[in-house]
Amino acid sequence: MSEQSMNLLDHLDELRKRIMITLASFIFFFIISFIFVRDIYEWFVKDLDMTLTILGPLDIIWVFFSIAGVAALALTVPVLIFQIWLFVKPALSQKEQKVTLMYIPASFVLFIGGLLFGYFVVIPIVFQFLMGLGEDLFNPMFTPNNYFQFVIRMTVPFSILFEMPLVVMFLTSLGILSPEWMRKNRKYAYFALVVLSVLISPPDFLSDVLVIIPLLLLYEVSISLSSVVFRRKIKREKEN
């Protein structure tokens, strides 16, 4: 077997190891979250002015699994980022290793920030708007399935998309991305973000706007952060 083939196998083995550790972490956090799922559920519905109605026993299972899954995903994010860092670590210099290591706690903060933004900012506005449309026409009755699908659609996408600045900084530090490229392709990125916003948000104009605006702002913030990382990278290369 050639040396190149052995290196490829070593990389694949290392990748498999990182994936297995991440999956094991997710399963562990899922079990812990499921143990406390009733407490998490009660926290989610404490401000709801109605009692959720179940149409069958499977609704309960779906809701509990969904809540535990989202909680486990949030707790697994730092582990996932750390495993990615360990995978690319051999290709980084010592300075790059120290800089990129700081992305791990930042990734968790951004993920939680996205969840909180979706839950405390977007959901109340969208919920009140949608309820107001049929206030005099319908008697609202939600199942846990309906309500938590709405909550998940309004929070999880934000938690993932809030990682955009961090991912951009990381790719810029590796030389894969540059602020100039992001500026040049801004219109294509805007189009992709608008399409993504329409797909992940409920089918009404207000929801689309509330999702589109933060995403476009995140893209502009990402360009600024990429510029900072790019200048520092160029400066270090000149010093070396």
UniProtKB/TrEMBL annotation:
InterPro entries: TatC (IPR002033)
Cellular location(s): Cell membrane; Membrane
Pfam family, one: TatC
Name of the protein in its database record: Sec-independent protein translocase protein TatC
Coiled coil: none
Protein family (similarity comment): Belongs to the TatC family.
Subunit organization: Forms a complex with TatA.
HAMAP family: TatC
Entry membrane topology: Multi-pass membrane protein
Transmembrane domains' residue ranges: 21-41, 61-88, 100-130, 150-176, 188-205, 211-230
Principal subcellular localization: membrane
Keyword annotations from UniProtKB, A to Z: Cell membrane, Membrane, Protein transport, Translocation, Transmembrane, Transmembrane helix, Transport
Protein purpose: Part of the twin-arginine translocation (Tat) system that transports large folded proteins containing a characteristic twin-arginine motif in their signal peptide across membranes.
